[in-house]
Amino acid sequence: MTFLPIASFFFALFKKEGTIPAKKSDKIYTREKTIMSDRQRLKQILLEKSYRKGTFTLTSGKTSDFYIDGKQTILSAEGAYLCGKLILELIAGENKEIKAVGGMTLGADPIVTAVSIASFLEKTPIPAFIVRKEAKGHGTGNYIEGLGNMEEGCSVALVEDVVTTGGTLLQVIERVEDAGFKVGLVVTIVERQEGGAEVLEKAGYPLKSLFTREELLQE
Questions:
Q1: pTM, two decimal places
Q2: 200: domain range?
């Protein structure tokens, strides 16, 4: 009858000393998950789902030995949540009030949706809008979808998944400003460090990024 208490004592002792591996449900596992920041976790997802090595032709026409397919991350549930949350934090840190978030279809579509949902959950709702590549061929004929949710002439944030030359964002900026809105913030998930940030800066639109290529690949 005395063996059971003794066995229980040694089991508890070994577990305390780390001899018996902790299960995933143990506090050690939970603590490790908590320590990882949102940004660190997003970096991990980007490297797992979006970063590829090889030979690729980019939208700009350039050839590259790596490719970042941001859609694979932003279209995952956790990736969308983290991108939305982190971009919203950048928006909240601006001096000017941002009243809408948008970008060029197709790459920006899931990003603007994620940011808008994140803003609602934070009780600071920001509507999303989408900029078409070609003007709508029927109905209103607009380049911009979502105008009905936007304040006339308001400041907006423009987003993109990956920036290489900055050409897509410059096109979006032109269309948004032609519609009477002000561009208050330009954000990308990954900046490839291939001249895009400099082009945008020269045009008067400093680019903010969640990660530069260097930061993404840094150990």
A1: 0.82
A2: 79-217
